[in-house]
Specification:
- α2 (17-26) crosses α3 (35-45) and α3 (35-45) crosses α4 (51-64).
- By secondary structure, the protein is α+β, with helices and mostly antiparallel strands.
- It folds into two domains: 4-80, Winged helix-like DNA-binding domain superfamily/Winged helix DNA-binding domain (Arc Repressor Mutant, subunit A, Orthogonal Bundle), CATH 1.10.10; 88-137, Ferric-uptake regulator, C-terminal dimerisarion domain (Dna Ligase, domain 1), CATH 3.30.1490.
- The strands form two sheets. The chain has a three-stranded antiparallel sheet with strand order 1-3-2. Strands 5-4-6 form a three-stranded mixed sheet, with no helix packed on it.
- It contains five helices and six strands.
- The protein has helices at residues 4-10, 17-26, 35-45, 51-64, 133-137; strands spanning 33-34, 68-70, 78-80, 88-92, 98-101, 127-130.
- It binds zinc ion (2 copies).
- One zinc ion is lined by residues 92, 94-95, 97, 131-132, 134-135.
């Protein structure tokens, strides 16, 4: 289980009611929500929360390094609380469900020297695509 709230508290982040709701909505495993999805879920708990507050709060979490932004497909950017365990994404091409996955090798180290073109390579982002079990059986 993710521990986003505890991590944010540990960073000395001032926890208001609105920030708490955003953090609670985003907490958990395999969570990858767009800002609009976070806003819709947060508004169910705190109807007065504005879209601007949600966007600002997400931006602060990203700045703190406790949430990462991921682009798994051509849809809107998603927010991911799994910020401290390097992982890649497995995406259902039909419904968009996203899983955190870890390839057996190290994709950063596995890029051969002659494929680096002199770059200092610091990060890698891989998206595996397919059909989730529900979509495959539908
Ligand atoms: Zn699916
Ligand atoms: Zn993820």
């Amino acid at each position: 289980m993710s521990d986003l709230l505890e991590r944010l508290r540990g960073r000395g982040w001032r926890m208001t009611a609105q920030r708490r709701v955003v953090a609670e909505v985003l907490d958990g495993d395999h969570v990858h929500l767009t800002a609009d999805e976070v806003h819709a879920r947060a508004a169910q708990r705190l109807p007065e929360i504005s879209r601007a507050t949600v966007y600002n709060t997400l931006g602060e979490m990203v700045s703190l390094g406790e949430v990462i932004e991921v682009a798994t497909d051509h849809r809107a950017k998603r927010y991911d609380p799994n910020a401290h365990h390097p992982h890649q994404h497995l995406v259902c091409a039909n419904c968009g469900a996203v899983r955190d996955v870890r390839p057996a090798g190290d994709p950063l180290k596995d890029l051969p020297a002659d494929e680096r073109f002199g770059y200092t390579v610091s990060d890698v982002e891989i998206t595996y695509r397919g059909l989730c079990p529900d979509c495959a059986s539908a």
